[in-house]
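Model the whole thing, not chain by chain.
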Amino acid sequence: MSIAPILRKVFLVDLIKGLGVTFRYQDPKEIVTEQYPLERPQIAERYRGQPRLNVNPDTGETLCIACGLCAMACPEKLITVTSERNPVTKKKELVSFVYDTSRCMFCGLCEDSCSTDALELTQDYESALYGREGMVLDRPRLERGPEPTVYAR
Amino acid sequence: MDTLLKYLGSNVTPGEAGDYIWATIYILVIFLGISVAVIAMNWLERKILAHMQVRLGPMRVGPHGLLQPIADALKLLIKEDIIPNEADKVVFWFAPVAVVVTAFTTFIVVPFGRTHAVTDMNIGILFMLGVSSLGVLGIIMAGWASNSHYPLMGSLRSSAQMVSYEIAMGLAVVSAIMMTSMKTGTGTLSMIGIVQSQLEQGQWFIFSMFPLGLIAFGVFAIAMVAETNRAPFDLPEAESELVAGFHTEYSGFRWSLFFLAEYAAMIAVSSIAVTLWLGGWLRPFPNWLPGTRWDMAFGFFPALTFLALALLCFIGVLRMPRIPQFRIQTLGLAGFGALLGFTGLVLLVPGVRIRVLDIYWFTLKVAFFMYLYIWYRGTFPRYRFDQLMRVGWKVLLPVSLGVVILVAVVGIWPELTHKVVGVLR
């Protein structure tokens, strides 16, 4: 048996190394905790949160063409699209769009299937509610987009 | 006023002078001081431990959670006082009292300075070790009276651990006590006497007979962590195995008494280590930086410490979020900083400065040990019980025995060689 491991034990080398590690981590710069309501975390761009129906910013008209691809793509069948044909232009026009977030798993298949980038899962993560009532989102609510909770005393 | 001046001019502890009034005042001041220190330790431990684990720790109650321990204490005091039905009521009631009383009684002989001790017992160190080992009685009583599995297991572990580590600890203390007789030939057990013999020998015992003093100190430093049931030797209250160990059934005020006693015992054991090996109230570097000028320079340290703390507070004030909800906290922190700064300025007055200097050095050294306790807790995983026993009996005990024998041999070496040479002639 060589002498080095014995000396390491006698002089508590490993323990002192461990102490060094914890000492270095005391630096306040290392802290990863977020003071949540005070400072809000940076959300990844591709994060899938609360849904939104995008409107054309110039005209205020919805981008949705009521094709119903999202409703078909949804594995939970929680999107309901109703539409009626405009007798003048002979185009389908969106009447209502119901999105039930209480059953949604935020897989993003609806977003992917949307041919006009109308439906988008935004980066809003504060989707918790006290009851189920507010979880079924209708068209006006979806077009207004996410309304993050404001915490204040 | 006259008695105050007379006392301030005297050079002995109130116990030696037979001054009952001053002794009572000292006891009250030490009791309050230790209680405040425990509160401060509670905050510091949570904060430092959190930073070591890359967390923030308490942040919401007061600026940087400074008022958290006070909030906790209030919560503990107004909690319902529960005694389990099956418990042995008298013993259950008496156990925390016994633990607290033994933890605080040891402070009678702790020398915060030449005159800053309640009394100077001629068997001071023996008294301290004896009374602090009585604490384990309270722990056993708590575990037994709870009439529950986990507390009993915890207290059994605690007693086994204390018994095995007390031997190594005692032998390490013996080697330090033998060093007190090195040059004068008359050793002492008095806490003040031990520090004074370090002053006369011109070196702290940690450096005496290098490396024997250092090894004895190392043995003591390990054994004292085990004695106070702190991580990594916190088997009696291992929360992953025994819920909370011997105080599982305790809550509210009784639990807070155990908490108080644990921290008071930590401070007491650290002050034994400081007194025996680190020169008690003596200032550092007496040999490298000798002379009255350096004495003077070191005399400014207490004031500088407080002023630095005040500065930290003011920096904290500047870095507080500037929103209305934080206005009261910011003002409070500024007030606390002003208080610290004022204390620092008072400490610059020459009379006060000289008077508190020894307390300052002693407290600083004890504070270093307190930091070590937290540091260990943040670093080391808990020992298994058989590992604990192996370290105690197979490593620390032989090492401390060897140190005692070697210190004895080195201590009488001149006499021994003289005699042997005489016999040979």
